[in-house]
Amino acid sequence: MSQTNELEIMERIALDLGGVEESLASSFNTGAEDFNALIRPLSAAGGKRLRAQLCLLIANAGTSVERQRIRIAEAVEMLHLATLIHDDVLDQAEIRRGEDTIHMHKGNKVAILSGDYLFAKAFQIVSEMPNMKYLQIFSHIITCLVEGEFMQMEDVYRIDQGIERYMTKTQKKTADFMEGCMELGGLLGGWSESEIVELKKYGHALGMAFQITDDIMDYRETTETTGKPVGNDLREGLLTYPLLSIVNDDNKDRLLADIKALNNGGNEQDIIEYVIAQGGIDNTLAVADKYCKDALAALEAIRDFPGKEFLVMAVENLADRKV
Question: Which key words tag this protein in UniProt (predicted)?
């Protein structure tokens, strides 16, 4: 694939993202000024827009219609933003993308209604598409997200939940969304059914690697690099792959007691050092590496296309993040 083609598709994606931002700004101009004032700064902060980028890249590499791909990417971002707002309520988080969270400003009711509006608006956009398949994909994504959130709520401080259940939650909360974005892009771009199967495999593997790599950050990074206190997941009773991978009959009671003590003066660093010493980080790196390889294998099974190198780089960036 020539460098020119790669640059051209990235320029088109940048233009499309500009269109997405304009559409989002227009959508957040409702008759409820409280809602507008709360949502606009959170949306404008943007984040990486990774899900929209994945969708737009695959759509642009095919034969998509500009207006349709921008609208679907807008709906993807609305859906993602809605889940973040609801997550913040469930976790009682205080900061999101450098801004005070909505429930901190206006309370849980306003935050929940704001997320509900975004869900409804996203589905309204998708319902205008010429193919019901788009709506089916969105419905699947949101169903998986909610199921994953229910599972996470059930598993707070559940030391014996096991790796298999944790991987199912990770799939539902992260991987299924990225897989859906790849499928949406393939549908928009007129990709063949066999190619869409491989694109979905890539999205699934990238999403799993993304979340599992993120699990490591709570054990390795500092507050300055992650934007949240180190050990934050532990304090909230959210037990992730590094810890779950080293739980056994001999240490589970002690670990659970130490984790529950974190909100009463316990030291998260002691737990972190124990998990690392027992091989928790090494275990997590190994499974993340497996998913990175799965993502690259899926790409290998697809013909070369403009933007393919970006997808390879997304995996390589995750691999670098693990180091």
Answer: Magnesium, Metal-binding, Transferase
